[in-house]
Amino acid sequence: MEQETLKFLRLLSQRYPNIQTASSEIINLNAILNLPKGTEHFLSDLHGEYEAFSHILRNASGVIKGKIDEAFQTTLTKAERKTLATLIYYPRQKLALVKKEQQYLNDWYKITLYRLVEICRIIASKYTRSKVRKALPKDFEYIIEELLHEHGDVDNKQKYYAGIIDTIIKTGRADAFITELAHLIQRLAIDRLHILGDIFDRGPGADLIMETLKRYHCVDVQWGNHDVMWMGAAAGSTVCIASVLRLAARYNNLDTVEDGYGISLRPLVTFAMEVYRDDPCECFLPETVNGSGDSIKDLEIMAKIHKAIAVIQFKLEGEIIRRNPVYEMEDRLLLDKIDFEKGTLRLDGKEFPMKDTHFPTVQPENPYRLTPEENDVMEKLRTFFMHSEKLQEHIRFLYSKGGMYLKFNGNLLYHGCIPVEEDGSFMAFETEEGMLSGKALLDYADKTARKGYFLPQDAEEKQRSEDFLWYLGCGKKSPLFGKSKMSTFERYFIEDKEEWTEKKNAYYDKMEDAALCERILKEFDMEPETSHIINGHVPVKCKAGEKPIKANGKLFVIDGGLSKAYQATTGIAGYTLIYNSYGLLLTSHQPFCSRARAIEEEQDIHSSTEVVEKTSTRMRVADTDIGLALKSQIEELQLLLEAYTKGLIHQNE
């Protein structure tokens, strides 16, 4: 053997000091390779819809209900199965209701515990005992492990297990045991969770979603255009801060900023109420979905805040566009196209009357300069964003678990698109490293996005990298945005809706082109015959007949409208793509009622599942990326065995 190989094997021998330990590990790893592949779930465009997202995780996109039906179809009524499902989804809350209604509680405990153990056993069957053991709650680790491996044909063992159940009830631990079993079932039902971007904005619970993901046992995130704006805001970019606050005000959702992240908006509110005191700000009344409990006065105040931060954003965007000519976004410089005397906007050679002409903070001779008061507001907000511990913790999580794209188990995951020209060739973007396109562009974007957050404030590249985070959120060549422009200004001030048009990148017109999909997969060094592309970003208009499966099954768009803001367009309330050991399943969800109704009335999300690709033989761990890593470990261990048997390395008995 070569000296470098022996050097590595000596290091490996510290963990496996003799033939016995190395052989045992080879046997163990080979056994794992033959287990069924773990179930992956793919979700996209959560947009702060915490309650719906939380329920989808709790019911594993309908998988748990399916397991209950599979186990108890002939022995439990539909109503009993619904109750059992609700108990698994919301154990603490459902137990509180059951205890008020059940006359013979101990009998109910006994029956329910057996049913939960049976469901847990079914879901855990595809994992090794070691993996299940690591997921077990510490307080009940031994007991659950014993119950999961019961052999019902042995009479003595049956009495032993019955004794365990009776003791759990008699010692008053039934509630805690049921709760832990329910959480274990939820955890084992999803082996790995993939989030394909846009966790933030629109809905009210992005911070709660981030807390859930932070605690999740196995998750990765592909950044979305809304996410990078929050990443930039946390880095201290004032233009990104203005952008996230404008969207929060637009959707009447400043609670996420104030209550979720503890960021004081008092400087902005005070400024808005002073400057726009007598301005009705009608163009800036917030959008509400399914009504709002706010009074007219509250909405009017929000409109003033909305306008104040929008004008600041347009000014800051002007600075960043002029600072970065490579962005080619000069057409977004619109404040200097206003004729303040006539109340019109000059756009593409045409003149349009403006719906709102009150701009008390805009100086016609230098429209992009912040007033001292605006500058003071933004400096204070910048400090608040950078010192929000919870926000910084969440953004660091996005960086540690996320990226621009992911290659995993034959699937290429990204949020938006791979920008292409009309002829289908990859669109190039000018950088300090040269013209980049395709995979190289996404790799550059990932690297620069990290610099924008992690570089110290006085670093030479800090400003450029922060600016690029903003560009990723709204630039026309950004893989996360993929449109010719962000027509925010026109939507506020111009009546003519034709001027609002945001032309999508040619990628979206060519989604059905299997040749383009194969070219993209090759660009990312993936096998085009067997791999898939999975992305979100653009809601699928199901009600208009659009399908999420493109290019003969090569590409999946899984933004089905989990966000309430898009459900009128999609006609459904989200997709989950499920990749299990039998193939690919696509589940479409109907709108979630509410957490209260889910618990009290046992209203589950109605989901429809279709098989989109079925494997000829059941996939094993050996067929996955983890399997490749395990095979590599086995080869290394076999080399170690060889070194032991040849006496090249001494065993430590």
Shape: globular
Mean pLDDT: 93
Work out the number of β strands.
17
Question: What would you call the structural class?
Answer: alpha/beta
Major β-sheet strand ordering: 7-3-2-1-15-16-17
Terminal CA distance: 23 Å
Instruction: Detail the poorly predicted runs.
Output: none
**Oligomer kind:** single chain
Portion in helices: 40-55%
Please explain how this structure is put together.
With 653 residues, this protein is an alpha/beta fold. The longest helix is centred in the middle third of the chain and has 28 residues, at 296-323. The chain starts with a helix and ends in an 8-residue tail after the last helix. 42% of the residues are buried.
Task: Please render the helix and strand layout as text.
Elements: H1 3-13, H2 19-33, E1 40-43, H3 50-58, H4 63-72, H5 78-89, H6 91-101, H7 105-124, H8 129-135, H9 141-148, H10 155-170, H11 174-189, E2 192-195, H12 206-215, E3 219-222, H13 225-235, H14 238-250, H15 255-260, H16 266-275, H17 296-323, E4 338-339, E5 344-347, E6 350-353, H18 372-386, H19 389-401, E7 402-403, E8 405-408, E9 411-414, E10 429-431, E11 434-436, H20 438-454, H21 462-474, H22 488-493, H23 506-509, H24 514-523, E12 532-535, E13 549-550, E14 555-557, H25 567-570, E15 575-580, E16 583-589, H26 595-600, E17 607-614, H27 625-645
Parallel strand pairs: 1-2, 2-3, 3-7, 9-12, 12-14
Antiparallel strand pairs: 1-15, 4-5, 5-6, 8-9, 10-11, 13-14, 15-16, 16-17
